[in-house]
């Protein structure tokens, strides 16, 4: 299953991360975008958002922690799988990742690298659960990205503060397989 995701980001290493309906409409029209991270919605709208993404022929990955009305319990993943038909989830919570893996979904564990403690926490978190991919934020730290790529045996996606082609190239050169961005200007690069 990981291979399909990997093939899609290899075809275009930029992942559109959407935070509103305008972004949804725009990225669904872009042929080069293959994977969409859904960073908004609520229990009443998520099914329709995922439906639009899937109808455009793209993978729909829902950041389950950001969907209003869902609890931080594993049942939220069941809801996303059963009600929306999403291909996968993003979460900062190991229990959510574990449950999504049980359900056969793509799993992306998100880490915010704010300081050395957060950096050191990566290995501890990954010892508890093995997601398909990890996402590191912010994505404009090539030196740290390189260290993380060497430290973990999981493919790395980076996001956050990616604003231009130079940021994309630096992240990919550091070992990331792709970058995610909410910036529509980056989606076409």
Describe this structure in words.
The protein is of the alpha/beta class. Helices cover 44% and strands 21% of the residues. The protein has an 8-stranded parallel beta barrel with strand order 1-2-3-4-5-6-7-8, surrounded by 8 helices. Helix 7 (142-151) links the parallel strand 6 and strand 7 (155-159). It is globular. The two termini are 26 Å apart.
| Alpha carbon gap, first and last residue | 26 Å
Helix content: 40-55%
> Strand count, sense and closure of the main sheet?
8 strands, parallel, barrel
Please, what is the oligomeric state? single chain
DSSP, total strands: 8
Tally of individual helices: 9
Structural class of the helices, strands and pairings?
A: alpha/beta
What fraction of the residues are assigned to beta strands by DSSP? 15-25%
Radius of gyration computed on alpha carbons: 15 Å
Unreliable segments of 5+ consecutive residues: none
Outline type? globular
Mean pLDDT: 96
Strands of the largest sheet, in order across it? 1-2-3-4-5-6-7-8
The H/E string reads: HEHEHEHEHEHEHEHEH
């Amino acid at each position: 299953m990981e291979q399909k995701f990997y093939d899609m980001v290899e075809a275009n290493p930029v992942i559109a991360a959407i935070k509103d309906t305008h972004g949804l409409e725009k990225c669904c029209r872009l042929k080069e975008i293959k994977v969409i991270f859904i960073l908004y919605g609520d229990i009443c709208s998520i099914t329709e958002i995922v439906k639009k993404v899937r109808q455009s022929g793209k993978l729909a990955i829902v950041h389950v922690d950001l969907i209003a009305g869902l609890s931080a319990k594993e049942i939220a993943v069941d809801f996303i799988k059963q009600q929306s038909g999403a291909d996968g989830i993003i979460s900062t919570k190991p229990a959510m990742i574990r449950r999504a893996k049980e359900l056969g979904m793509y799993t992306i564990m998100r880490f915010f690298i704010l300081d050395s403690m957060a950096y050191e926490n990566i290995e501890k978190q990954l010892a508890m659960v093995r997601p398909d991919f990890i996402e590191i934020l912010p994505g404009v730290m090539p030196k740290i990205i390189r260290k993380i790529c060497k430290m973990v045996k999981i493919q790395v996606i980076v996001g956050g503060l990616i604003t231009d082609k130079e940021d994309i190239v630096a992240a990919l050169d550091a070992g990331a397989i792709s970058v995610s961005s909410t910036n529509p200007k980056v989606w076409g690069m």
